[in-house]
């Protein structure tokens, strides 16, 4: 049987093979994205997130620098000249734009300054609830056993207290109801949902391979909790906190409407004052109600967008 031979001229040289291989296009390594990277890619193209974020940014500007939107004083009263004065819609962004209330105060100016109180209470309560409820839920879910049993029963007891009714009882004990007092009262009763969500997330995360490997390597409890468990369990808590922020803003307005809220410019106070003159001056209640509704809706929309972006089931 004849042997197949290849001449030296026909055999490809090693240099030619290497050169040909160098000329071939090399595949580009794909960059792997984390959960937060994927979520940000989804949020950037989500119109619900964009609209709600722009509204919240506008509200934050109102709260931080109300002078950018009006030069009036929310506590300036002029009963002689502006008692229940009608809105003058031709004077856009002026103190006369949305009319005056029964004490001669500008409705527009008070609507702008009311954003500060509502956002401070909502943001402060959300921060306190997230820290307190997140810590309790993380400890209960990670250690389990009797620690989980005790903390879960305490959570159940607090969940049995009606939120607004309990806040009314607590605030009735204070004569000077400042922003910190309102925050503490709402946070004292509102941490239970965050604790439940964090507990469930921690129970899921602590059984994963990387947590078990960290334990096997001798990592301490604090390192495991704050370096491995917390970063991977915090996503659902962020979603709950974002949605709850709007709920706490509405709760503050409800307490102010009932007479147990903040003193000063507040949407709840203005809505309550407008109820006394609703037959002759509907604008007093109308515009603070619109501002409150837009604010609560913006945070709820933001929370829904974040939840959909962080939920793997929607991908």
Share of helix, binned: 55-70%
Secondary structure category: mainly alpha
- Binned strand content: under 5%
The separation of the N and C termini measures: 62 Å
Query: What's the count of strands?
Result: 0
Low-confidence stretches: 1-11, 14-22
Rg estimate, integer Å: 29 Å
Average pLDDT for all residues:
83
What's the helix count? 14
Could you say which overall geometry the principal axes of the C-alpha atoms support? elongated
Please write the string of helix (H) and strand (E) elements: HHHHHHHHHHHHHH
How is the biggest beta sheet arranged?
Answer: none
Describe this structure in words.
The chain has 315 residues and is mainly alpha-helical. It has helices at 14-23, 35-44, 47-64, 79-82, 107-143, 145-159, 163-171, 179-190, 192-205, 209-216, 221-233, 235-257, 267-275, 283-310. Helix 3 (47-64) packs across helix 5 (107-143) and helix 6 packs antiparallel against helix 9. It is elongated. It starts with 13 loop residues before the first helix and ends in a 5-residue tail after the last helix. The model is unreliable at 1-11 and 14-22 (pLDDT under 50).
Helix-strand layout with pairing:
Elements: H1 14-23, H2 35-44, H3 47-64, H4 79-82, H5 107-143, H6 145-159, H7 163-171, H8 179-190, H9 192-205, H10 209-216, H11 221-233, H12 235-257, H13 267-275, H14 283-310
Helix pairs in contact: 2-14, 3-5, 3-14, 5-6, 5-8, 5-9, 5-12, 5-14, 6-9, 7-8, 9-11, 9-12, 10-11, 12-13, 12-14, 13-14
Summarize the structure in short.
By secondary structure, the chain is mainly α. The protein is built from 14 helices and no strands.
